[in-house]
Write a structure and sequence with these properties.
about 750 residues, globular, single chain, alpha+beta, 4-stranded antiparallel sheet
Length: about 750
């Protein structure tokens, strides 16, 4: 093997003076060493116009090209004989999707007709045979080129190959026979040419004849069709066809960017691209986008819809107490199961196939899911009856109940006050007795806040215990779905029905999780157990809230449970740690990621993400104030600080999680007030934006920390003050939800 001069990308030889080689040749990345042909590798441009192809291959008269058919539906490989450079260029131009923007191996196979035998052309030996004309083209030879006397040539990369017909000139201009490495006759002009071992798997019977299995061949294009498999490389293309017949038009799923768009993008990104670079990127981007178009034709997996239903209806105010329902329906599940006879309300951020879904916002108005969320299917499989979609806050980003675009949800205990959010509708329908149980979601307290303020039981399960598949995300690392009910027993029944691994669809879950029969393990003795009253959880709470929760916790002493104060100073920083995660993270997932985000495995709801993208683009002005706030903070932080504070918060969250874990090694559960104050009044039109924002987000000091750490946390009514419920929060070890339910059931009986 001779040395390669990288500056010109051609072999050096003391007896050969090489011409200058254009830059395109220097970009070639490898050398073919397969005998018996002289070979080079070409990187075709992505926007391979005829002019650019001529620039690459205009130096060749006769070539043999190894076509790397391994893209998309064309898989396999073989050789095609081209009788002219125009034939090669035509073939490559017609099949850009297979060859352009990638390497092809070109084997020189014939004589170049040099009209100037005495020129400095390195392949000319006084005008005699075996000549190859480079003309400065993009050739990178495989092995030593030696032009020998009496018109023979040899390639010494892997020994002497290809002596040309006993030193007679090789001719490939349809004027006579030639031999290829003693591999059999090759006759131009209408008779047989064999491509044994290196051919397509058959004979070329004439210049316009057939390749076996590949359809019509016209000097430069093989027939089109679908190659059957990677292993079937001699049977050809399935249903090959005439190369003159164009492919059927298919509208592109992804429109390629214009030159102007690329220039604007480059400027906005600070790349300072030249016109040539823009055109180069344009070709590569167009090629890459063809892969995106390929997957548009593939059918993705989806979620099952197992039970018949009708779309239902939007209820009139007269049958919509507290404005708790967005939509009513009637979907009956299995004839038996844990939830047989239970009426279930589904929060309107959860997909129910065929039933309209708004997620509290005009951004999603008009969207109807085509799938049932996994937890909906499990409810129906357990015999539950889905009776409607419950109102929630706009995009679920509020702890109050006034941002829904259909109007505020009212607290059943006092309709001037907030029902809490974002799952306020679910809490209200349970409290009103319209549903036995309901589904809520929780990223900052959205199950526990409304449950506390209306006086029901609400459990935020361990993160990942209940699959979130088919529920609108806010931020993957804080998303929870869970049960809300009038009793601990019903809460446990619903959890038992919906918990468990979802076959890899939800990236929040671990496959090794186990789920005990929660409803059957509630009645246990707690004698000898220990409760820690988290002192930092009481700090900053209204005085009556502190007194009622402490008095409620003291009742456990009557059943021989030890109750004592415990301090964990890091708890006071829990909201500060949660804020960047649930603000910057929500911006990336809910806003920029269109309700799906990136970098997670699992099942994405494509139609929902499309609706959110369209909704944000066309209706952004009408999003709620909390969503605007999230978007503005997220945009500002990303522009000025990148992901620094999100990363810092997640790192601190690891520390916070471990600190709670250590505390829960000493105590079976820890207890604190669910919320620092009782249900507030709903905002009036005279309130300032700042006052409304405080009403929406000012109550999460004890709820938000456990969303980022993932510990199970349950609220149960501890008592009343001024006619309003006050919640007691019980927190346990991760995946020890059953113990949290056991303590809640014991307290329920003590009342």
């Amino acid at each position: 093997m001779t040395d390669i001069d990288p500056t010109i990308a051609m072999p050096r030889n003391d007896s050969t003076k090489l011409p200058n080689v254009p830059k395109a040749a220097r970009d070639m990345s490898s050398v073919s060493t397969e005998p018996p042909f002289k070979a080079f590798v070409a990187n075709l441009p992505y926007d391979a116009s005829e002019e650019k192809l001529m620039r690459f291959f205009g130096h060749l008269d006769v070539v043999n090209v190894r076509l790397p058919l391994d893209k998309g539906r064309h898989r396999g490989f073989g050789y095609v004989q081209f009788q002219s450079r125009q034939g090669l260029i035509g073939a490559l131009g017609m099949h850009q999707e297979m060859f352009c923007g990638r390497k092809i191996v070109v084997h020189l196979t014939g004589e170049s007709h040099n009209d100037n035998p005495s020129s400095d052309n390195p392949s000319s030996d006084n005008g005699k045979g075996g000549r190859y004309r480079y003309d400065g083209g993009p050739c990178r030879a495989a092995g030593d080129w030696r032009s020998q006397s009496k018109s023979d040539s040899a390639f010494t990369d892997r020994g002497n190959y290809g002596r040309s017909d006993d030193r007679r000139p090789i001719r490939n201009d349809n004027r006579g026979p030639s031999r290829y490495d003693d591999r059999g006759p090759r006759r131009e002009g209408g008779t047989t040419a064999r491509y044994n071992e290196r051919g397509f798997g058959g004979d070329r019977r004439s210049d316009r004849g057939d390749y076996e299995g590949f359809g019509h061949h016209d000097d430069h294009v093989f027939g089109e069709g679908i190659y059957r498999s990677d292993d079937d490389r001699r049977g050809g293309f399935e249903g090959g066809g005439n190369r003159d017949e164009p492919e059927m038009y298919r509208a592109p799923a992804v429109r390629p960017p214009s030159t102007k768009e690329l220039a604007e993008m480059g400027e906005s990104l600070g790349y300072q691209l030249t016109d040539a670079e823009i055109e180069g990127f344009k070709g590569h981007i167009m090629e890459s986008l063809k892969l995106y178009n390929d997957i548009e034709g593939l059918v993705p997996p989806t979620l099952p819809v197992k039970y018949p239903r009708t779309p239902g209806y939007r209820p009139e105010p007269s049958e919509n107490s507290c404005n708790a329902w967005y939509w009513k329906c009637d979907i009956k599940g299995a004839s038996s199961g844990l939830l047989k006879g239970k009426r279930v309300g589904i929060k309107d951020n959860v997909c129910v196939a065929g039933v309209p879904m708004m997620n509290g916002s005009k951004v999603m108005q008009g969207y109807t899911p085509e799938v049932d969320a996994t937890l909906v299917t499990r409810i129906l499989d357990a015999g539950g009856q889905v009776i409607g979609k419950t109102n929630c806050e706009s995009m679920c980003f509020s702890g109050s109940s006034f941002t829904n675009d259909t109007g505020p949800t009212l607290n059943p205990k006092d309709q001037e006050r907030s029902a809490g959010g974002s799952s306020g509708g679910s809490a209200a329908v349970v409290k009103n007795g319209e549903a036995d149980v309901a589904i809520g979601g929780d990223q900052g307290g959205s199950i526990r806040i409304p449950s506390s303020w209306v006086g029901i039981v609400g459990l935020k399960p361990t993160w990942g215990l209940v699959p979130y598949t088919g529920v609108v995300p806010i931020e993957t690392t804080v998303d929870h779905a869970g049960p809300m009910a009038a009793s601990v027993t019903d809460c446990a029944l619903l959890l038992e029905a919906i918990a468990g691994y979802d076959d890899g669809r939800d990236p929040r879950q671990e496959s090794a999780m186990t789920c005990p029969p929660y409803s059957k393990q509630l009645e246990v003795s707690l004698a000898g157990k220990k409760i820690g009253l988290l002192t930092e959880g009481f700090d900053g709470c209204e005085e009556d809230v502190q007194m009622i929760v402490r008095a409620a916790a003291d009742r456990f002493k009557s059943i021989n449970v030890e109750v004592e104060d415990v301090s964990m100073p890091l708890h006071t920083h829990g909201v500060a740690i949660w804020a960047p995660i649930c603000t910057d993270g929500a911006y990336q997932c809910m806003i920029r990621g269109f309700g799906g985000g990136y970098q997670n495995k699992g099942l994405y709801n494509e139609s929902l993400m499309t609706k959110l993208r369209e909704g944000y683009a066309g209706n952004a002005r009408n999003v709620s104030d909390p969503v605007k706030m999230v978007t503005m903070i997220g945009t500002y932080m990303e522009k000025n600080y990148g992901a620094h504070y999100y990363a810092r918060a997640q790192n601190l969250n690891w520390k916070l999680t471990k600190t709670y874990d250590e505390l829960l090694e000493k105590y079976d559960v820890i207890i604190m007030p669910t919320l620092p104050y009782k249900a507030p009044l709903l905002p009036k039109t005279t309130w300032s934006l700042q006052d409304r924002m405080k009403n929406a987000l000012g109550m999460v000091k004890n709820t938000a920390p456990f969303d980022i750490t993932g510990h199970p946390a349950l609220t149960i009514n501890a008592g009343m003050s001024e006619g309003l419920p006050i919640g007691l929060q019980i927190v346990g070890k991760r995946f020890d939800d059953v113990k949290v339910l056991q303590f809640a059931r014991a307290f329920e009986k003590l009342q």
